[in-house]
Design brief:
The protein has about 260 residues and is an alpha+beta fold. It has 3 helices and 14 strands.
């Protein structure tokens, strides 16, 4: 009972973190302006005129279509999809056998054997047709398109004897199979981005703020992202106190008993 209480209390703490993050992101979206790139260029030139060349910083939102970097499109690893960003994960499902109290126990587990997130920058073309660079900074976008989701059973092959394929009776890895998942952002995909615009490398780029602030890249509209954060915050605001209270009650009851 004490252990369950502690687990609930820890879950409440994790939920509180995500509740605050959802609230802070919502406030950041409400407070940020959605600006066209041309207007950002005007603000950058004003910054240059007062001697702050390369020091322009502006937290805001931009919307538009994803556009490849000058070197061209990326090609995703698993599906070979042309894109501006991709991420893949490969997981192994396996069985682990143990013996306790004279009995054979089998439990199924999953481990990540390979994963990669593209780091290359790309661009966004706003509604006036003007480009701005995007530095993804390893951040996973909100709701990218999933192009691969499959499971392949593991089929180890044994030796060939007299032209016959024999099963591999010596394979003791316990591998059941592999899960493959991949997500992409294709060129032309409509994006909403909240972040900090800077001119550190010359051209304007939007990315993760250097200090305080939030960085969101989403295939959803701003309103859809806002609604999602409101819903998340609303449910967590109910669940966190309930989990914390239940955890305290279980710990106290466990100690008293």
């Amino acid at each position: 009972m004490v252990i369950f209480g502690i687990v609930l209390f820890v879950a409440a703490g994790v939920g509180f973190y995500f509740m605050r993050r959802a609230r802070d992101q919502l406030h950041a979206m409400i407070g940020a302006e959605t600006l066209p790139v041309n207007e950002l260029e005007v603000l950058r030139r004003a910054s240059d005129e007062v001697g702050a060349r390369g020091g322009f910083r502006k937290q805001c939102e931009v919307v538009g279509a994803a556009h490849p970097r000058p070197e061209g499109v990326l090609v995703s690893e698993l599906s070979k999809t042309e894109c501006v960003w991709f991420r893949y994960v490969v997981k192994r499902r396996f069985e682990r056998v143990s013996y306790r109290d004279g009995r054979r126990h089998t439990e199924r587990r999953t481990e990540t054997v390979s994963q990669h997130t593209s780091w290359e920058g790309y661009a966004l073309r706003d509604d006036q047709g003007v480009l701005i660079g995007v530095d993804p900074n390893g951040t996973a976008p909100d709701r990218p398109e999933q192009v691969v989701k499959r499971f392949e059973p593991y089929n180890p092959q044994g030796p060939v004897v007299f032209g016959l394929q024999l099963p591999n009776i010596f394979d003791s890895s316990g591998t059941i199979g592999y899960e493959y998942e991949e997500w992409v952002i294709r060129p032309g995909r409509r994006l909403y981005i909240l972040g900090e615009v800077h001119d550190k490398i010359g051209p304007l780029v939007i990315g993760k703020p250097e200090r305080d602030g939030h960085f969101i890249v989403s295939t959803r509209t701003e309103q859809e992202v806002r609604d999602s954060r409101r819903t998340q915050h609303r449910w967590l605001a109910i669940g966190v106190p309930v989990a914390a209270l239940a955890g305290i009650v279980l710990v106290v009851l466990g100690i008293v008993r």
